[in-house]
Amino acid sequence: MGSSSKAQKITDDNRVKIFNNPVLDMLTKTHIAFPLTIFPIFSGVVLYLGAARYGLGIGELFGIFLFGFLLFTLVEYLVHRNIFHLAPTTEFREKIAYNFHGIHHEQPKDKKRLAMPIVVSTILAFAFLGIFYLIVGKYSFAFTPGFVMGYATYIGVHYSVHAFKAPKNFLKVLWVNHAIHHFKDDTVAYGVSSPLWDVIFGTLPPKKAA
């Protein structure tokens, strides 16, 4: 028990550093409270603009929001599978995969690296709003909030499965699947917020693995 507890304790001294510069390395970390506060506010403001400025109705806002949310779950799955677990066929690809996600697999108890750095994710949220506006116009004011809240849900689930015990209800499968991905087989269970795309793409862990 002593060695196990010691191995799981993450301190500033034994955290893996991405940058030697302490300021730059600090910017690679974030407290979960920041994105879980900022992105719902961002989404709410953008939805309000969609209704007040562009005249989007409740049905349009709700339907397009859900579509954006669902699309993010697909993006989450594809990025996790194809970028975070990029095959290390070259030194550059290995470095990309390690800095993006390998550190998390090495130290899954490091709570400060369970979400994208807040500066990066905030810039991306505004960038996506601009990109989606160029593609779908006013509907981006419903689609972007859904997409961003998909991300907020993802990091909320991701933090929970690492920080808290599994609940005794239907959500337990999220804890089980992610534990299998981390500690048994990282070629399955790429979906964190939902097993939907693992089912569709055939990467759901077999029941015996659970």
How do the helices and strands line up, and which of them pair or pack?
Elements: H1 2-8, H2 22-26, H3 33-52, H4 58-84, H5 91-106, H6 118-136, H7 140-163, H8 172-183, H9 196-201
Helix pairs in contact: 3-6, 3-7, 4-7, 6-7
Helix content: 55-70%
Number of strands: 0
Structural class: mainly alpha
- Mean pLDDT equals 81
Order of helices and strands: HHHHHHHHH
Q: How large a portion of the residues is in β-strands, by DSSP E? A: under 5%
The DSSP helix count reads 9
Give the termini separation: 23 Å
Largest sheet: none
**Rough outline:** globular
Rg from Cα = 18 Å
Task: List unreliable stretches of 5+ residues.
Answer: 1-14
Q: Work out the oligomeric state of the chains in this entry.
A: single chain
Characterization of this structure:
- The relative contact order is 0.15.
- The longest helix has 27 residues, at 58-84.
- This protein has a domain at 20-165.
- The chain has 210 residues and is mostly helical.
- It is built from nine helices and no strands.
- Residues 1-14 have low confidence and may be disordered.
- Helices cover 65% and strands 0% of the residues.
- Helix 3 packs parallel to helix 6, helix 3 (33-52) packs antiparallel against helix 7 and helix 4 (58-84) crosses helix 7.
